[in-house]
Design goal:
The chain is of the alpha+beta class and 106 residues long. 35% of the residues lie in helices and 19% in strands. It contains three helices and six strands; from the N terminus they run ββαβββαβα. Strands 2-1-5 form a three-stranded antiparallel β-sheet, with no helix packed on it. A three-stranded mixed β-sheet has the order 4-3-6. Strand 3 and strand 4 (46-51) form a beta hairpin. Helix 1 crosses helix 2 (71-81) and helix 2 (71-81) packs across helix 3. The two termini are 27 Å apart.
Length: 106
């Protein structure tokens, strides 16, 4: 994902889900933080980017085939995007666990 002049790496399947949720929010003119943690093997740390309709965004996928979207993962990511922390990148497995613990959002 390119944000301004910086590029951030996400796995294609994760990026496809983020793209959908981000497009939904930006289509409603909603600004939000996009946050994620970096794995220790990638240097650790946390990122938070402010995303608004004025942000320059591009999504670059490594594979030619669009990944299949998981509606539950999309729903959880969308729910997280309305939280105080903003859109937090979580794995598909973490999203399934979140949906189980929070059945009202699923």
């Amino acid at each position: 994902m390119l944000h301004g002049e910086r590029e951030y790496q996400f796995e294609d399947r994760t990026l496809a889900h983020l793209k959908v949720v981000m497009a939904q929010k930006l289509g409603k003119h909603e600004g939000f933080f996009l946050s994620w943690t970096q794995a220790p093997e990638e240097g650790s740390g946390r990122y938070s980017l402010w995303i608004s309709e004025h942000s320059t965004l591009a999504f670059r996928f490594h594979g030619a085939k669009a990944p299949e979207l998981n509606p539950e993962w999309l729903h959880v990511l969308a729910a997280l995007s309305h939280s105080a922390r903003g859109l937090t990148v979580i794995s598909e497995t973490e999203a399934a666990k979140y949906a189980k613990r929070n059945p009202l959002i699923a």
